[in-house]
Amino acid sequence: MFSEKVLIEKENSTALKDDKGYSLSFGELWGFCDDFNHRFSLCGRELVLVLCENTVPCAAVFFACIINKAVPILLSSRIDKDMLERYISIYRPNYIFKPKKTEISCCNLFVNDYFDYEMVKTAEEALPMSEELSFLLPTSGTTGNPKLVRHSYHNLSTSVESVAKTFRLCGDEYALLSLPIHFTQGLSVLCSTVYAGSRVFLTDLPLTRREFWNIMKEEEITSFSGVPYSFEVLDKLRFYTMNLPALKVINQGGGRMPDELFKKLTSYAADNGKEFYATYGATETTSRMSCLEPGYTSEKCGSVGTPLPGYEMWLVDEIGEQITTPNIRGELIFKGGNVTLGYADSAEDLVKGDERYGIYETGDLAYRDKDGFYYITGRLSRFIKIFGYRINLDETERLIKSEFNGDFACVGNDEKLYLFTNDKHTDTKDFLVFLKNKLKINISAFEAIYIDDIPKKLNGKTDYNQLNHLVFRKEGI
């Protein structure tokens, strides 16, 4: 993660800084990692649940875990309390690193302070874990499933090297990281930037706050990464008229962006001497799989580009045969050293080795044009991605059915989740507030629609095709 060259040349240079006033040089960061086990009384390969905020202490603890072979589970500090208790119960972490203000009910043997955080030792014994296992991320979903993605050390090193090469990181960059570090794209920005010997400024401030833009200007930030929703907000804030001379690179990931917005960013970058990269990735591939580089954004609107260095992508039809003809849609398959080991549904799964062998069936439908550029067109399963977070529609239904009476069904796209219900006694706003609080996503992402009866197939299962047709007619599609 830290090359000897970077540590020597950048020892006194800032590596991490945040809006809470914390900062660490590369030398100080390495010193923290070197002293980590002694400081927090870790005994080597143990499981550390990290409740993340975009701050220097949280980033430093992640790096220290990786260096010392402890295995971190990265979760949001804003996670629903019941969900947090479920993770703790299932995975039985040996330590929990959390903000001091966050209360947990597990047995605390002792606590070590670290700025506004504390490392809590639990009563759990160390679990057997694969030697390949480096860290665990939630499946970028927010619907209550405690499934985790198992990353290897090879996944991490392959990914950061490939991303650094793609973005031509040379050590002079200063990245503003507002995407959460427990979110695969945010973690990718953090790791690849530090790996290259460049600076990262971490913040949880929303883009709508004046302080966010003060940071952008005063710190002279050179690169910014966002998901489609980020750029929708920027569009409303008249981002294209802002004077940001230091900003050089804009990177978009987290799902397909509307073509109109894609074209706006392309024009803005071209007119202002900046580089706009569109990327495609997944938690299951340690973030990025492909990239549309700046020289192609004007002629390949909406494309996710071509595979990153050392990776491969191809399409297969319904019977698994490879598609070689341009512009024919099929499932996108990916191959690379960044493809993760597999999933974990329980603590016992942490001992498992590689179950994917470098191949990831994305579940995304795509086509490839005559020049070899890929375009994502849809999904095979009932997942949608809103604001960069993948949502399992079936699990969302189960969540809301557990809270309210009546029948419910969810459909949607990468712009909105539509909740159909036959419950006419509950204010539809109550459903929206519930989804907002459970999924931790802006309420504008949801719409509740009353319907006399949820349509069913002959086998009694919900007829989602009929509901999709209702949405299409409502939206004039």
Per CATH, the superfamily of the largest domain is ANL, N-terminal domain
Q: What number is the mean pLDDT?
A: 91
From the 3D coordinates, which CATH architecture of the largest domain would you assign? 3-Layer(aba) Sandwich
Radius of gyration: 22 Å
Instruction: Briefly note the structural class of the backbone.
Output: alpha/beta
Number of strands: 27
Largest sheet: 9 strands, mixed
Query: What gap, in angstroms, lies between the N and C termini?
Result: 48 Å
Specify the CATH class of the largest domain. Alpha Beta
Layout of secondary structure:
Elements: H1 4-9, E1 14-18, E2 23-25, H2 26-40, E3 47-52, H3 56-67, E4 71-76, H4 81-91, E5 95-99, E6 110-114, E7 117-121, E8 133-138, E9 148-152, H5 153-166, E10 174-177, H6 184-195, E11 199-202, H7 210-218, E12 223-226, H8 228-236, E13 249-252, H9 259-271, E14 275-282, E15 287-292, E16 306-307, E17 312-316, E18 322-323, E19 330-335, E20 342-344, E21 359-368, E22 374-379, E23 383-386, E24 389-392, H10 393-401, E25 408-412, E26 417-421, H11 428-439, E27 446-450, H12 464-475
Parallel strand pairs: 1-11, 3-4, 3-5, 10-11, 10-12, 12-13, 13-14, 26-27
Antiparallel strand pairs: 1-2, 5-7, 6-7, 8-9, 9-20, 14-15, 15-16, 17-18, 17-19, 19-21, 21-22, 23-24, 25-26
Helix pairs in contact: 2-3, 5-6
